[in-house]
């Protein structure tokens, strides 16, 4: 077994045996879909012909992806460092790049599974989401969004020493961002100054990209801008996370 | 192949400070291959720091370390398969079973599941192979941690307080595992607070205090050189302390918990004198142990 296979297998088993993780990764976004679906049921967005669900669903999905990526890596990093698993890995001859790659692959697989389940549920007649023909464009956005929030998770995991700290810091970052980016409330309902704040939120660009790809609304220029900004965020967050990284809590 | 004449570990004038604290202060130590060496000392004596420098987890300020002819720092992928490390925290992959955890570790060394199952059997954990790592008992945790260090059959094994919080039976079981490893020619470096255990297991012990090696020898040699002598114990009241201290060969007398203790370097003379003045039935003798040497050394340095 290669390091890559062994680690992805271990992560798969750990994830599927942990009911809390499964709930927050897969079921929780669906709960929000139901709530927002009920609030905006039947309403149409003027001029576009889209239902509100076409904008709400990408918002909840963007948040779900960001949440799972950030918390997944933050908890794992905190736990592996606290329990000396990082040291254990460092003391084996495994290539560190292979370890990182395995973790990335796990995060991407979770993200893809989230998207499939979420869109699958959102498109049933009860919610009535319509998926635009250019939906494959959601894939790069999804990958870049996951990369960005893996970077965020890397930072949270590096500065947290307990699960409680991960929850507290993570929620302080992700929940306000879900509102300020327009993922939970349409930016159109925000005052102008708050709308400009949304442009500082990485989640805003995942949302823009997903709306363009899935709802078929918006300009192609906004899509490419979203991709570029996410590349920037991902690079900066990952760099900060790596700077803060330590192998052990008593270093 | 490695040159077998080469020592397992060579530590030369090693120092490491944390702020004003000299955690390791000029330690020089050579461990030949196949030796079972114990690092003893109070908490904060520098045992763990010294071990972690040798393992390559910490960088020394000054001095050099070679392990089987390799430098452990920076991360040396040629050396890592040759050493096995059990840390104080039991590092297990969350939500996995004992065998799944070991299979994952084995994969990090490029080994298959046979290696994992061999390690499980080696520490007598085959029956717990399918137990979750979070569900096993304290003794089994320690054994699983040791199995983790043995998966790749390393030449040099580092164990940090492997018998820490174990009940007496579990400790004896672990001793058997450690003796087996020693019998297989492995070099073992271990730390413990159980001095009678170190005396029973180790070829040599190094006693550390404030980052320095204050004694390094076989337990037997340390005991005889320290001249802590033998103790003769008898119930209080059987003989007056004043009378006891005047007996032939008695160096000193202490009274503690209903026991009168006579300290001597000349056991037969004391017993002869004692036998002339009282009944010897309730009398016990206690030979000096490593613990006496340890307490004397650490006490003298403090």
Automatic annotation (TrEMBL), chain A:
Keywords: Antibiotic resistance, Cell membrane, Membrane, Transmembrane, Transmembrane helix, Transport. It comes from the Bacteria. Residues 20-248 form the ABC transmembrane type-2 domain. InterPro entries: ABC2_TM, ABC2_TM_bact-type, ABC_2_transport, Nod_factor_ABC_transporter. One of its GO terms (molecular function) is ABC-type transporter activity. Its main location: membrane. The chain crosses the membrane at residues 20-40, 60-80, 100-125, 137-159, 166-185, 197-215, 227-245. GO terms for cellular component: ATP-binding cassette (ABC) transporter complex. GO terms for biological process: response to antibiotic. It holds the Pfam family ABC2_membrane. It is found in: Cell membrane; Membrane. Signal peptide: none annotated. It is a multi-pass membrane protein. PANTHER family: NODULATION PROTEIN J. Belongs to the ABC-2 integral membrane protein family. This is Transport permease protein.
From TrEMBL, chain B:
GO terms for molecular function: ATP binding; ATP hydrolysis activity. The keyword Lyase does not apply. InterPro entries: AAA+_ATPase, ABC_transporter-like_ATP-bd, ABC_transporter-like_CS, ABC_transporter_ATP-binding, P-loop_NTPase. SMART domains: AAA. GO terms for cellular component: plasma membrane. The keyword Nucleotide-binding applies. It is a peripheral membrane protein. Keywords: Antibiotic resistance, ATP-binding, Cell membrane, Membrane, Nucleotide-binding, Translocase, Transport. It comes from the Bacteria. It is found in: Cell membrane. GO terms for biological process: response to antibiotic. It holds the Pfam family ABC_tran. Residues 9-235 form the ABC transporter domain. Belongs to the ABC transporter superfamily. This is ABC-2 type transport system ATP-binding protein. It comes from Micromonospora matsumotoense. The lineage of its organism: Bacteria, Bacillati, Actinomycetota, Actinomycetes, Micromonosporales.
